[in-house]
Amino acid sequence: MADSGSTVAGGAGSARDAAGPGRLLSLDALRGFDMFWIVGAGALVGALDKMGGNAATRLLMTQLQHVQWAGFRFCDLIFPLFVFIAGVSLVFSTDRTLARHSAGSAVARLARRCGLLFVLGVLYYGGVGKVWADIRLLGVLQYIGLACFFGGAAYIALRNARAVAALCAVLFLVHGLLMEFAPFPDVRLDKASLAAAETRAGSIEPSKVLAAATAQVRGLYEEGRCFSNFVDYRFLPGRKINGAYESEPLLGVLGVVAACLLGVLAGLWLRRADVSDPRKVAGLLAAGAACVAIGVALSGQIPVVKKLWSPSFVLVAGGCSAMLLGLFHAVVEVGRMRRWCEPFVWIGMNPIAIYLARNIVRFPAIAARFAGGDVQRFLDTRIAKGSGSLLLALVELALTFLFVRFLYVRKIFIKL
Questions:
Q1: For residue 356, is pLDDT > 90?
Q2: Which of 26, 95, 323, 352 ranks highest by number of CB atoms within 10 Å?
């Protein structure tokens, strides 16, 4: 959701000028920092690695690639960090809504906004102009919509940190128990194994393929052989990005809602007027470290797997998100150092716009018109290896920043 944890700033002023009463500029900056890695920073790091790869650039390149299955890298944090930030924002935006409207009206408004985001997600992944089997129902935007709706509805109903924390714990518990103890047919869902299973069953219908299985298993966390993947294969209609199961799985909705609720808890903490800003920073850092420690301890039984949104993954990602929010709050709100984060604020105040624009406008293709082709080849061969790629990445980032700054200066903030 694009609504930040405060009033929307407009005009061409600086980030310092944009700050107003009750505004959490640090939240916009952190959201922009998060989106920065989606909108072109990876290409910049890749170009630097080509120019003269060293241990530092190779480490960055590794961290900017998703773990194939179990494990955790910086790239795996980007999406849950956005969901966490959305949870923080929900506290402030919902409080403003409830000050003017009833709880029922607030839920209805939330449903409209999140429903629109879900529809945009379906359109982003190809829309409905295809046969039913080719429509992707779950993806990044749909997950954000679901997380914000259920997280926001829970906050409207509970309005209490302890109750929100208890609900979050219940989601972790239910998710973990299902993954550990729910039995499912022992059908491997990788392409080759599934094809063999379909041949044995004489059908490609999931229910018939599963019925033909000769064994039941439980408590497995292998890719293509776990309860979450089974649920997708059996019950999730439409196109699935991994063929038989999703990277944003149906069962993982429990995890993404829990991640949003962790953000709600952080928002409730930041909203407290009786707590000083330095203490808020300390609380975020301590709570974040505790979540990471619990997640790592839990990973011995329930692995850290982003493609499952497993409880251990959500705890590790949520803990890292809380610590990052604490650091940004310390620098931007406590230290009052704001000029450096202006470009991040431009992005952070229009995250949905830039995310969708990169699919429609295609900044890399436009950048190639300025610095691709022979220009890139000349720089790579005559100046320095990778210098052409570096220029291309810089032009792409410049176009992105010009776009979001244009929106910021013109007071165009796309909210759902």
A1: no
A2: 26
